[in-house]
Amino acid sequence: MTGLKSARQLIDMADMVRPSALRAAATLRIADHIAAGTATPAALASRTNSRPDVMELLLDYLVELDVLSGNTIEGFALTELGQALRDEHPALVRSSLTMDGLIGRSDAALINVLHTIRTGEPCHASVFGQSYWDSVNEDPSFQDAFTPRRYDGLDALGWDTAMIVNDYDWSAVRHVVDVGGNTGVILTELAKHHTHLQGTLLDLKNAATVAADTFAANGLNDRCEAVVGSFFDPLPSGADVYLLSAILADWGDEDAIAILRRCAEAAGPQGKVLVADVNLVLPGAGQRLWIRATMPTPVRTVTELKALGAAAGLRVTFEGPVTPVRSLLEFSPTAAGSAE
Ligand SMILES: C[S@@+](CC[C@H](N)C(=O)[O-])C[C@H]1O[C@@H](n2cnc3c(N)ncnc32)[C@H](O)[C@@H]1O
To answer: Is 338 a residue whose pLDDT tops 60?
Structure first.
């Protein structure tokens, strides 16, 4: 019966158990525990501080999904699929599925994509009661998640980040403030490549804490500091350049203009605001819906960025490269100084 087949197919497509169970398994590090020899439901429940009876249900289901083999009596083993759920797997699947990770937390909010469809707002606050960045920065259990799992230098940063370091004339810049600088890898690269630079990174709590560790680990404590703060509040003033890298995409126009105004007022008449924003045109319709639900403005053209700058009292004074994923624009406060 075709109708019945379609109905089953739809129910299967809308299944909530499979993604939830896989993410729970990733969060509890089930694959790593089994690889280390903890293989029965009772032992795994004890190891993960979970209920043995429900753990048994999870493990049986993971067998059904071909992630595990074995049974509750003799214990479970990893299949080839299960091996990919180990923390050490090079594809880093576990760290992107775990509920205490940055991507897993963001994706979990998609349960209420309906909120974004109705309002245009990101779905996080409707699920977690706070905006995404506030929630992952204020909860200390997310601090580890900020620590980069693997850091292979500038070229590995992706999204054409290298243009910030390579395609802007930093020679006359003494002090840069990396506004929303995250864990400090971009400022570290700037400081390593331009050894005269002093840097201040400003971000919310967890990111700024990890950034301070990044600077210390790279021997940059004498030139780079991390401060906790919000870019909606007054910024440290008097630096030569205020860098906004991949920041504005997370905000609608009104908030983006407010952030640019904060940079402009801190920069003063002689300072610059360097916008290196991303332009994320994703290939699949599902991916486009996903990113729109988690990032309010993933796609902004250079023309639109310039209009945001103008609304914040800024005019373009240098145009760097424009690639499919990122552009580089230097702004200066206009003489009219409408950035108050
Ligand atoms: C998409 S990340 C960009 C990070 C970095 N600039 C880069 O290019 O990789 C956005 C950053 O903005 C920070 N952020 C979000 N809200 C903030 C706020 N109100 N004040 C300061 N930083 C904030 C986040 O913690 C995060 O580090």
So the answer is: no
Domains present along the chain, CATH in parentheses: 1-99 (1.10.10.10), 154-281+294-333 (3.40.50.150)
**Residues 149-168, mean pLDDT to the nearest whole number:** 84
Distance (Å, whole) CA 53 – CA 42: 8
* pLDDT per residue as tens digits for the range 214-245: 999 999 999 999 999 999 999 999 999 999 99
Instruction: Tell me, using a 6 A CB cutoff, whether residue 181 lines ligand 1.
Output: yes
161 CA closest ligand 1 atom index: 8
Q: Three-state SS for 323? A: coil
Kind and range of the H or E element at 272?
strand 272-276
**DSSP at 1:** -
Distant-in-sequence, close-in-space partners of 237: CB < 8 Å, separation ≥ 6? 265, 266, 267, 268
| The two three-digit tokens of residue 15, written as one number | 């299944």
Q: Which of 250, 274, 291, 327 to mutate to test the pocket of ligand 1 (most atoms within 8 A of CB)?
A: 250
What is the rounded distance in angstroms from the CA atom of residue 214 to the CA atom of residue 182?
A: 10
